[in-house]
Queue: 3 jobs
Job 1
Amino acid sequence: MQSNEHILPNGLRIIHKPTLSKVAYCGFAIDAGTRDEEENEQGMAHFVEHLIFKGTEKRKAWHILNRMENVGGDLNAYTNKEETMVYAAFLTEHLGRAMELLGDIVFHSTFPQHEIEKETEVIIDEIQSYEDSPSELIFDDFEDLIFRNHPLGRNILGKPDLLRGFRTEDA
């Protein structure tokens, strides 16, 4: 099936792929991943991915999550070394709702300091779970050997000591 592409005046690229399905997917692919982090920013891309769900200029965290769940949709995100993706899955009739919500969290997140403090501990728990997985650690060692001191050789999750130092103004 063919896809259509359109670039808005603000540079935002929209790709639309028609489907016969009643379920649609919509997302923002943000050209920023851990490869873009400085040494003292390790884990920031992943941290921001978590924080965008914690409040916007017009929504509290629970409003963000409920906005899609209330109509049977799903809202999620991931970060890798090349990009951060924020996306939703929903019934096609809720496309407008999904696009408005995604735009709000991508462009109007507020990164409240109290949420940063809570999310720091969540991510540190995630790091500790990750470090309990020998297969993950071997992969990290392998990337570190290949990329040496380049950001591509670093773990996406970051380091606990750096995470504890992140503030609202860093996001």
Job 2
Amino acid sequence: MSDRNLDPTLASDSTLVSGFVDHLAERLLKTRTLYLTGGVDDRVSYRLVSSFLTLDAEAPGEPITFYLNSPGGSVTAGFSI
């Protein structure tokens, strides 16, 4: 894998950056790590809850690491997380 695939600052095309982010998210899921950055809304909440449930179904009782860096957002969406 070239350094261009690992460093999003080297990408001159938004497709490369998007691909890097997708690759990073996939690798984090494999290590049972989830993260939330930015505001909380129904879409974000749905994706996170789906990810938590999927990881728990794959290996019940195993730890899931969750990183939260959010200014807030929808209270009801946050409650579901």
Job 3
Amino acid sequence: MKYIKKTLILILFLAILLPLCKTAFAGVSYTLSRSADYSTDDRAFLSTDTIYIQVAQNILDYREIKKSFFTLQSNKNKRKTKHSLGWDDDLNAFTGTASLESYAIGDKVTVLMNLQGKNDKDKIIRKTRFVVGYSGKWQLTGTVYEETAGKTKQSLTDARVRIQGVADIGPEDEGYYPEKQDKFVLSDGGGAFSLDYEGISGQIVVIAAGKEGYKNAGAKVTLGQETNASISLSPIPEEDHPSYEYISSKTCKKCHANIYNDWQDSALANAAINPINQLVFLLYTAWYVTGDRANFNDPSIFDDPNPEFVGDKGKIFEDSEGNRYKILGDAGHLHDCADCHSPSYASQVQDDGVTPLWDMRAGVMSDEDKLSAIDKQGVHCDFCHKMHEVRAEEEYWTEPGVNYKVNLLRPDPLLKSSTTGKVMFGPLDDVIYKNMQASYTPQFKKSEVCSPCHQDARKLYLQPVDEKDQTTGETTERILWSEDTYREWRFSGYSGLEDDYPVSNYAGKVLECQDCHMKDPPEDTATGKSIADYEEITDPFYMISKDKRKYATKRDSRTIYPHRFEGTNQNLSAGEKKRYLEWAVDLTVTNTNVENGVLSFDVNVANSHTGHYYPF
């Protein structure tokens, strides 16, 4: 009997829960635009404009909607007009238009969007407003402050101030790689700023400010009204908290679905779990990602951070000049690949709160070596965007992994859910979403941010010995470059960082890693060589999930960097891989000859379009 009761309770629970779930996951979004392609979401219009309205929803079956319309009501004369909304298969939404020529400047117009199903209760109604204004150029002024203890404020110098979403490119430049033109201003010695902006009276815009070492912030202003904006930036936390528990990239997906989907197929997301990298873990740490040590028969690996079979320790060899050496060991402790393949795991600390969980330089290993579900996400969102600073100077090129090359700034776990504790580092100075607590970090646009994992070396200690293997001199050190991509780029005509290697490449300008691996590289105008057939990002809201776009910032799509990491992504289709390979090098066939029915020829491979060695 008790089982029957439990079953009935479960059925009742599901009967209640399922409708609630349907409601919870259902959504309605709408766009009011001055553009026929709905590329803008506007709340200020000219009387000469046509308003374009788009309503998308996943609550009702569109085929069962019997009435679909919107009304416009003037606040000045209370006149109401009704306009139809029709279904658009291409947009998967209801759309409609209306002329605004009968509305006076200064009028605040109420929009009521109405979708009605077969039953009276099947109804979707959304209400919003827009203003009818006039075009003008507005001077926007204000002051940037630093928020300090005790709620006092001090003026902040050299903060970057811009209208949110306005990119640093020229307005007339329509190229895929437009020339940079700064659209921000710096606050002066007293924190004051002044910006010019062309818009429509009554339009609400956001003035955003950011500065390295501070969290971005902003203020809303209405064009045509006298305003003196006040923006307060909070300093980022001073102390890193290694006990912080990283969040899953799936959490980021809720707002950044496109970016997440790009990353999910990339080598970064699979660094800890694809079959090849699982073999890396097996060879160097003797455990699988599952943490099952039983698959390895040599227990000495866990007691000796530098076992004999790693790096041929103890082996005697002769170099090209006949000098004999005995390999004493590898200072990098090859067993630890977690530093780059699962950096969130490697960056944790042991119970003492100080010693890294995995420390390649000191040969420290912990007893717990199972990757968590988040650690298995490889190089994931929350790790990269907790990087406050990357040390890319030459002295760090031979340091192993993230523990010595990256300054992380992780929030106090006790403050994790508060805006005080949160922080996310990135390349944008105008992201002011409170739940993110973004901080402008220009290094994210530089190759330096890639260097912790893409510049790695091992120090091999060698003991000179005679023919009888007896010691004959002092120990020497040799560097084995295991991952040398950043150094190759830096000492090339692509970086512009070294006096002996001035900028000299097909594009004629500095190209960072991101310019080729997170976008399509610029076209080679001299030869016409290009990979522009790649499906470029054209959606100005690409960075934000569709159901969150009501709160999104429109951005010039040319400033958006997808996270597919082409050129390294083995999950791309064969055609996409081939496209990148053909771009990277030029192949020519010479010295063709047929003799005795045998065709012979030379294939010349010229590395013409990469800023590092090829193959790498």
